[in-house]
Amino acid sequence: MSLGLPGHLVQRTLARAIARAAHWFALTCFSAAILSVSILTLRTPELWITIVVVAAMATLLILFTRHRRIPLAVAYLLVGTLGVYVFTATVLGVPDVFPASNMFLVALPKMALVMVGGAGSTALAGVLWSTAAFLVAEAAALLAIVGTTVPYRPDLFTLSTYLVLVGVMVLAGIDRRASNAAQPAIHRAVQDGANRQLRDALDTRAIALLNDTTVSQLVALSLAEPGALSPGLKASLRDTLTTLHDTNWLADIDARTTTSPQPTVHEQAPTPSPAWRSSAVYTAVERCRDRGLKVEVTGDRDALARLDAGSDRDVGLAVQQCLVNVILHAGIDSAELAIESDRSTISLLITDAGRGFTESESASDRLGLRQSVRRRIEQLGGSVLIWSRPGAGASVRLTVPAETPSIKPKPTLPTHHTPVRPGSLNANPANANPANATPTNATPTNATPTNATPTNATPAPRNPR
Q1: Higher-pLDDT residue of 439, 31
Q2: Element holding 395 (H helix, E strand)
Q3: For residues 230 and 235, what is the distance between their CA atoms, to the nearest angstrom?
Q4: How confident is the model at residue 180 (pLDDT cuts 50, 70, 90)?
Q5: Which of 42-51, 95-104, 316-325, 366-375 is predicted least confidently?
Q6: What angle do CA 146, 148, 150 make, to 5 degrees?
Q7: Is the torsion defined by CA of 13, 14, 17, 22 positive or negative?
Q8: 35, exposed or middle or buried, with CB in 10 Å at 0-12, 13-18, 19+?
């Protein structure tokens, strides 16, 4: 009966629900009592006092429902006790109408008074309030019955109402305790699930980073020519050692601010745009060029600036792994990187004309495409498509979500009004551009405006024909 609510809200919510139901039941009893007594008043006018008493009890109940204060509950009990006495004595005092005291009409105010226990903040408090209301209501009714000629009979209506309300509150209290006991176990299970997901994500990143750093550098060393290492390979090894030595090597870092591309032999090329140069994809391309791979980059390079720091880093590592695969397995020294974008995604297509492969036949210990590319991109919410077959090269398309580009309004050029002399050719705004307009008072040939002086006149443009 926790209704799927947090543990700290269950008790308050159930208490309010029980209180509201109890109060509506009490108001229904008051309405029925007023309606019944109103009908009897047509024959016995002295019953009008009972309508006033019931209305007073209903007013106090409405106030108690809105504010739920202990003084209002006490006032409701006191006024209700007096009201039950007056109602019972007046109704049963009508001669030859009621054969016994256990009539449903007589029980209506008592049942409404018992409902005060529904507003208890806890099950125990609710039971105590209902019990007190039941006892004072029965005592007042018994005292009123003694003063009439109607014989006393046990009131099963009020007793049943009391037992049902107490049973509901006791069951709610038991369920509340069971729910409170289960909440810590539920929270522990949720926390354990979150911890498992976190460990799985960390394991995935660790495997991918191991393949991107240690494995790739060992392969690069094995393929390097004997002798001194090239400057690019030295820089790549230095960067790998720095990454592994860092205690936060699994944390997301802002590659655009904390790192910069390693110096390469290609710096003599035309200066790239800042958005392209600051991206991790640019760093990956330059590192693979240092290892002898010719990479042609086309498309919308500046679109990479729409990626956040984590996505930019992971996309750069995925592109680097694709280019490393070309170096190691394609048997060719060139590849192409095409960058495309739309309003919500960025796509990178890495293509080579090498040996090709069949992904389903790749060895199980090959972690490059599986961990460093596919799982890394999928964790970003993107997708990876691979087209390849033996002897026909390979194409890998990486698609990742990106921020929607903001559309800047085109600046409006201010209109400058230059004062001109009267009679000048530019005095008329329509003739500001001589190539597009003909002066009003000029002939198509070399005519001079009538109001222009010979020294200040500007010759009209010749007819191009």
Answers
A1: 31
A2: strand 394-401
A3: 9
A4: low
A5: 366-375
A6: 95
A7: negative
A8: exposed
Q: Are 232 and 264 in contact (CB under 8 A)?
A: yes
Instruction: Indicate the burial class of 91 (C-beta count within 10 angstroms; 0-12, 13-18, 19 or more).
Output: buried
pLDDT class of 447 with cuts at 50, 70, 90: very low
The pLDDT assigned to 388 comes to 86
Torsion of CA 82, 85, 91, 97, to 10 degrees: 170
Least confident of 192-201, 233-242, 435-444: 435-444
Q: End-to-end distance of the chain based on CA atoms, in angstroms?
A: 94
DSSP annotation of 208 reads: H
Q: What is the pTM of this model?
A: 0.42
**Confidence band (pLDDT; 50, 70, 90) for 270?**
low
What DSSP state is assigned to residue 350?
E
Contacts of residue 159, defined as CB under 8 A and 6 or more positions apart, other chains included, come to: 134
For 269, phi then psi, to 5°, come to: -70, 165
Residues paired with residue 295 on neighbouring β-strands, in sequence order: 335
- In terms of Cβ atoms closer than 10 Å to its own Cβ (0-12, 13-18, 19+), residue 420 is middle
φ and ψ of 259, to 5 deg: -130, 160
